[in-house]
């Protein structure tokens, strides 16, 4: 279904995007701008405890600022995205065919690489929870998310599991999808 040429998102998708917007809008300004994404990059890189000269740190920063550049297409003259404009931008860039792979996979890959302490391509419970807590998900929400996503019971989440979870969080309208817990309760 479309409205004014834009696909209408479900109530579940809107609730998840509202939750994500609230996590991103650290200062409670009611809008996002490039500084919010720069701060997000700083928080995520800091949570990974990466040295300033570690190339993985720069990959996180570059991927998140690149994400902002993609989403900023709907920014106003002051370079700001309201909640509605940000949701429309996510919808247009991520929900389109190959959008998730083009827009979100580079970000997720850089974050996984930054937090994967032993380089095995998986995040253990502590690494995963550190990612979520770096983006303002509380410890209880981070623990619940890990428990819901560790469907193999291995105590680790593979890159593939994390990508599926991120895709579910962003595009699934099934309220029971495990990926909906990726950023804690919404």
Automatic annotation (TrEMBL):
Species of provenance: Allocatelliglobosispora scoriae
Domain of life: Bacteria
Protein name (record): Ca2+-binding EF-hand superfamily protein
One function term, GO molecular function aspect: calcium ion binding
Listed InterPro entries: EF-hand-dom_pair, EF_hand_dom
PROSITE patterns: EF_HAND_2
Listed transmembrane segments: none
SUPFAM superfamilies assigned: EF-hand (SSF47473)
Residue ranges occupied by any EF-hand domain in the UniProt entry: 12-47, 137-172
């Amino acid at each position: 279904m479309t409205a004014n040429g834009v696909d209408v998102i479900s109530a579940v998708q809107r609730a998840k995007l509202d939750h994500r917007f609230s996590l991103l809008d650290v200062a409670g300004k009611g809008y996002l701008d490039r500084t919010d994404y720069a701060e997000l990059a700083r928080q995520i890189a800091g949570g990974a405890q990466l040295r300033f000269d570690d190339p993985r740190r720069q990959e996180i920063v570059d991927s998140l600022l690149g994400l902002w550049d993609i989403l900023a297409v709907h920014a106003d003259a002051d370079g700001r995205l309201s909640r509605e404009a940000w949701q429309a931008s996510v919808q247009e860039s991520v929900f389109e065919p190959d959008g998730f792979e083009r827009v979100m996979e580079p970000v997720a890959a850089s974050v996984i690489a930054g937090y994967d302490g032993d380089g095995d391509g998986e995040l253990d419970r502590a690494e995963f929870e550190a990612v979520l807590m770096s983006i303002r998900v509380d410890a209880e929400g981070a623990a619940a998310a890990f428990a819901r996503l560790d469907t193999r019971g291995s105590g680790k989440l593979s890159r593939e599991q994390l990508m599926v979870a991120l895709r579910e969080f962003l595009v699934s309208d099934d309220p029971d999808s495990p990926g909906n817990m990726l950023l804690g309760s919404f």
